[in-house]
Amino acid sequence: MEPLGATTVFLVICVSCLLFFSAWRKMSGSGKLPPGPVAFPIIGNTLQLNTRNFAKYGPVFTIYLGSLRVVVLYGQEAVKEALIDQGDEFSGRGKLALADKLAKGTGIIFSNGERWKQLRRFALTTLRNFGMGKKSVEERIQEEAHFLVERLRNTHERPFDPTIPLTHAVSNIICSIVFGDRFDYDDQKFLTLIKLTEDNNELLRSLLGQVCSLYNFFPTLMDHIPGPHQELLKNSEELRIFVLERVKMHKESLDLSCPRDFIDAFLIKMEQEQQNGQSEFNTENLLRSTLDLFLAGTGTSSTTLRHGLLILLKYPDIEEKVHEEIDRVIGRSRSPCMADRSQMPYTDAVIHEIQRFVNLVPMGVPHAVTRDTHFRQYVIPKVSSKAINAALFTRG
Hints:
By secondary structure, the chain is mostly helical. It has 2 domains: about 1-90 and about 370-385, no CATH class; about 95-365, CATH 1.10.630.10. About 55% of the residues lie in helices and about 5% in strands. It is built from 15 helices and 7 strands. The chain has helices at about 5-25, 50-55, 75-85, 95-105, 115-130, 135-155, 165-180, 190-205, 210-215, 220, 230-250, 260-270, 285-315, 315-330, 345-355; strands spanning about 60-65, 70-75, 90-95, 365-370, 375, 380, 390-395. Strands 1-2-7 form a 3-stranded mixed β-sheet. A two-stranded antiparallel sheet has the order 3-4. A hairpin with a 2-residue loop joins strand 5 and strand 6. The protein is globular. The protein starts with a helix and ends with a strand. Mean pLDDT is about 85; it is low at about 25-30 and about 385-395.
């Protein structure tokens, strides 16, 4: 063998040994972590992401997405046991690079610890104060339903895509609570807001969304590479700018004794805590919390309604029974109300089945344990802020 060839072989062997030693170190020291497939160097188990590859490990297993260690809980029993029976231990938020880039640890969805507790408590209290779960929000929904029906009537029985009108209607409910007003369906700013939201959802749902996911594994590299993740970040910044404009408008007309909506309530809380240097009630948390509420209140409900229509089209016999119960209990001369629910068991069951059937968020939002946690026969360790140990929950 020539010297050059021997040198090449030697280097290949050395690099291979280093890579596999790195992989071995990653797998060792895992303590009593759930079992899982052997991870490849650098890419982890990224090329093995298929449920058939993981079935043999049961409902709790460990994988590596690049260098990101993930404990996956699969199925209703495992998820319930973690999120409900051991809710405190699993209440941490797993860190994802893309979420950190977007939210920077602010807001409700991707914050942690005391910040999350304070913002979540404030949001729940404020939403209740503005009608969530009360008669007043039912009236807002009934009013918006009338606008939606008129919009559908204007199609004059021609084929149409229900995505936009359903999204507008659902979004207006949360907008009335967060921003203080509903928007006209033809309002240009509202249309832009909905388009940005839909574009981001489509990016995450599509194959291009896989490129966005790579950001979580190689954030430094992806920052310098063009692609759909850059569009996602650009759209998110435009959404932030929209909310910032609304906040400025609210500041100019704020009445400390009479909050009109979530933004007003947050601004008043900021005023009350302005002497507290450690307060979580600041502009960045206001912007992100408002966006979190808007996106959460717009996306999941409108998508569920859309899938519900599709499912009823596929099962016309079910649709006919629902229609019959609606006509019998509600009729066609008044709007439905929550009091009707107890008299409509079949429709109620169909709605629950649609929610079970529709896989809105396939892997859920990443969680992290708040301390070393015993789960079944395993131990999921808490890790330092520099490391990442996310638990992704899927539905069975």
